[in-house]
Amino acid sequence: MSAPMRPPRVAPALAWLETHGSPLYVYDLGEVEQRARELMSVLPAGSRLLFSLKANPLPVMAEVLCRMGCDAEVSSPGELSVALAAGFSPEQVLYSGPGKSAEEVRGALGLGVTRFSAESWTDLERVDRASRAARLRSRVLLRVNPDTPPLARLAMSGVSSQFGLDEVEWRAGRERLAALSGIELLGVHVYQGTQLADVPALLSSLRMAFEAGEALASALDLPFQVLDLGGGFPWPFATPGTGLELAALREPLARWAAERRKTASCELWFESGRRLCGSSGTLWATVLDVKRSKGKQYVVLDTGIHHLGGMSGLGRVPLVGMGVARAGGEVAPEVLEEVNVVGPLCTPLDCFARNVKLPPLRVGDRVFVPNVGAYGATASLTGFLSRPPPLELAHREAELVAVHRLRWGHEPQARPPLEGALSEESR
Ligand SMILES: Cc1ncc(COP(=O)(O)O)c(C=O)c1O
């Protein structure tokens, strides 16, 4: 059973706001460990769980998940360096993403990473070329875009997308694959979409991933070693609540794992970012102003879309659900006022919530947004309006473990980039 999310710890957070300033992301590492244990417990025996650093590349988050026994899924040189510094060995890293440059593939190989997910023929042949040049053999998963979409708000496969290749395109390339001496084909990668809402949605998309693996292994008749089934394991975002109970996945996943034929000897991999770190993070902020405008009440915070949900400007992020805290604990929602909660940026898009009911707020009050441990700070518009990125603090049982601030700003460059045609090597 999923343990309920622990409520944010008000007293230590108020003290940290005094010491470290506001706004402040606070991460509870015990939550991360709890979520990792829960997720691992429903996966078939012998499966690997990859932590997707895109959800939260905070160094201490990666360290905790490395210690919990995860591998790492990275999609940029920055995520790779966090993963390696956190203790993941290069052999534990899967390098994925639809636009890997030759330079970053070379960089990853130079750091000892040889596991890549190939998202197209161009991508695969780029990895092959770089591997041969480095006298290495990369171990590659073919990312497949299955034919059916998942039941997800943000479908990344099963629809026309930049992710992976339609199965028929990989199928048709048996000879082309055989000619690539810089790679060994490790298996198949499917990632259907994030935030799959319920157990039926998760099961249907994981089932589809099993089938895609079987189909491609049969069509290519190759001895695959890995079937990466993706994930999409959900957790509420920026609103109170506890994530979906996952126990109902255990039995069908174990059964499907046992029923495999062509991929029977494949290790099963799953990926997760949101489920592992979403519940651990709370964004704490301070009320800077309270005012009325043409009959409506506005609460101005010292945080906004540069710290959380930068994509709200694109209509993606739902209304943020907030709590209010004063010395003595969370303010009970007894008397409520309808307010618009906005940030300090000079754009009307900097709005967390419209017409929400909150306890009456005063300047200096502390407010918090729960469930922002994934796709929070680094998924925001941190550069917009040149305000500093938020401070991020991690604790275990209210004992401080780490404090970080994202780097931000313009680095002067020694000279303008070289002009001229791309060399053959950099294509
Ligand atoms: C290939 C891949 N793996 C894993 C993830 C992590 O998804 P989530 O954070 O929903 O678990 C994503 C998210 O976009 C992804 O694209």
Automatic annotation (TrEMBL):
Pfam families in the cross-refs? Orn_Arg_deC_N (PF02784), Orn_DAP_Arg_deC (PF00278)
Ranges for domain Orn/DAP/Arg decarboxylase 2 C-terminal: 24-373
Superkingdom, taxonomy of origin: Bacteria
Q: Which UniProt keywords apply?
A: Pyridoxal phosphate
Q: Which cofactor does it need?
A: pyridoxal 5'-phosphate
The transmembrane residues are: none
Q: Say yes or no: keyword Mitochondrion present.
A: no
Q: InterPro entries in the record, alphabetically?
A: Ala_racemase/Decarboxylase_C, De-COase2_C, De-COase2_N, Orn/DAP/Arg_de-COase, Orn_de-COase, PLP-binding_barrel
PANTHER family the UniProt entry points to: DIAMINOPIMELATE DECARBOXYLASE (PTHR43727), GROUP IV DECARBOXYLASE (PTHR43727:SF2)
By sequence similarity, the record places it as follows: Belongs to the Orn/Lys/Arg decarboxylase class-II family.
Protein name in the entry: Decarboxylase
